[in-house]
């Protein structure tokens, strides 16, 4: 409900409204970014496009983990399960079943959901930290099962995507890039619209206090299940995109916990529980990784220390700092009174008729 | 007889897993914290022992050095870092311990390379006893007995000592415990210290038993978790039973097909989770 619909606030509509609503500002920014992104294939080389695709999938992975852990409070360290399953599903659908490889990318998300459902039933029995390890065990089970399929999935040596071979290189690159754009924008839009919806409100309530949320009639189990499946779908599609660019999939790499480590670092550096955070975090992570890629262990030591230090001294992340310092907000997903009501002085309110105490 | 030998091996291996699990469930019991670096600390202890062996010590004697170091590390870790994020939700401790896990792995890799190492305990490693046709390895037996002794000691500690009572009181309700004059933050420090002291023993025993390398920690964390989940949270003897069941599942699985070693353990864990989510011998309901 909008504040202006509340009877006691109705008469203050006459106060000057802000010139640009946050929603409209976001729409303009989003349209600008989308249009710029769509022009990239016109002027950029394949190297630039590949770098952008990599950036986009890291960003989207972080959005999915942030939705799961930051908004819904389910701290999973087993998200690599859906990356691996998505990648394998895409290759099997395209190479073994002859489905168009670009369609297979999205179908792979559904395959991930198929496996996520029984997974959820099991891991939802675990609380907090044990939930985290439980998700990891399940990812390990998928890894070991796939590795044990030595003929069909070729065990540890893995499979190579053949379907792309028939497609011309430039077509392939442009389609991969466009799919990445859909996934990148899609993941942000998903979180944005979900968090503005009623289930989104229920979700944050569940995260903050499951008991209290249940007591006001929220079906916490169903909500959490829905988000778990949504994130499995999203991460599965992203996994398919990753192996559309990498081409060769091996169980040990596809189901590596390192994927989840990257998601956690991006979200923690940028800011947990915000949509802006993973975007900033992905930019920072990407730059760090480019510079530290030659330092091997040191880059991981740096990431590990950063995670600890961030949690201790800047738990809200870089975006949290910017938000507090400059009152910035790009994605209006928090519920609050319109800005002009919050900033109005008592005198101004008085002049416009004032807020009458409810009788 | 092959089967009997396999079963005996599995049971004895379970003692080691019970030690892994006890350290993990101890701190969860006291402060509801899950240490994602638990497995990496086990490996760290093995490397500390390896370093101490450079002074010409037998690996078992290095425990005299490794246990105090790990204990102090635990207290410092808890009081210096983890206590600062207590009560801020479950995310900060998980992210911090996950960060530490990656930190420990990579520092070890930097210092010792990715090559696998072994704590050389000489003749003890291969010694065995024969009972008619059943062979029992001396070292696995020592490991199992060590586990049982430590669990008995813990039980006595919790039931008979003032500090143990303070642990239990803090576990039940830190707020009320504080009203009774217990400093919960101090208790948390002792608990993490105690957990890592047990980890120290587990790490050295692991290092004598098998080869280890910097990245095997996460799998040990999973084994610890599985022993706890199978046995049931909050039960000391449940963890031993859980460890034994896990050890049995792994050795029997591996006897059928060498690649099933880990998978068999995971599947037994998931079956327990599906059929009896509170574990087979649970005492607390706070899963």
Question: Could you please describe the fold and organization of this structure?
Answer:
The complex is a heterodimer of chains A (359) and B (287). Chain A has 359 residues and is mainly α. In chain A, 70% of the residues lie in helices and 1% in strands. Chain A has a domain of 235 residues. A two-stranded antiparallel sheet of chain A has the order 1-2. The radius of gyration of chain A is 23 Å and the shape is globular. In chain A, 41% of the residues are buried. The C terminus of chain A is likely disordered. Chain B has a single domain, classed as ABC transporter involved in vitamin B12 uptake, BtuC (Orthogonal Bundle). The longest helix of chain B has 30 residues. Chain B starts with a helix and ends in a 12-residue tail after the last helix. The interface between A and B is large, with 43 and 48 residues.
How is the secondary structure organized here?
The complex is a heterodimer of chains A (359) and B (287).
Chain A: H1 22-43, H2 46-71, H3 80-96, H4 101-123, H5 128-148, E1 159-160, H6 169-196, H7 198-208, H8 210-215, H9 220-246, E2 248-249, H10 251-254, H11 258-270, H12 276-292, H13 297-313, H14 317-326, H15 339-343, H16 346-351
Helix pairs in contact in A: 1-6, 2-6, 2-9, 2-11, 2-12, 3-4, 3-5, 3-9, 4-9, 6-7, 6-9, 11-12, 11-13, 11-14, 12-14
Chain B: H1 2-31, H2 38-53, H3 63-80, H4 91-112, E1 128-131, E2 134-137, H5 138-160, H6 162-172, H7 174-179, H8 184-209, H9 217-231, H10 236-256, H11 261-275
Antiparallel strand pairs in B: 1-2
Helix pairs in contact in B: 1-5, 1-8, 1-9, 1-10, 2-3, 2-4, 2-8, 2-9, 3-8, 5-6, 6-8, 9-10, 9-11, 10-11
Task: State the gist of this model.
The complex is a heterodimer of chains A (359) and B (287). Chain A is mainly α and 359 residues long.
Contiguous runs where pLDDT drops below 50 for at least 5 residues of chain A: 9-16, 354-359
Rg over C-alpha atoms of chain B, rounded to the nearest angstrom = 19 Å
The largest contact between protein chains, plus residue counts on each side, is: A-B, 43 and 48 residues
Helix content of chain B: over 70%
Q: Structural class per helix/strand content of chain A?
A: mainly alpha
The topology string of helices and strands of chain B comes to: HHHHEEHHHHHHH
**What are the secondary-structure elements of chain A, in order, as H or E?**
HHHHHEHHHHEHHHHHHH
Helix/strand-derived category of chain B reads mainly alpha
Radius of gyration of chain A: 23 Å
CATH class of chain B: Mainly Alpha
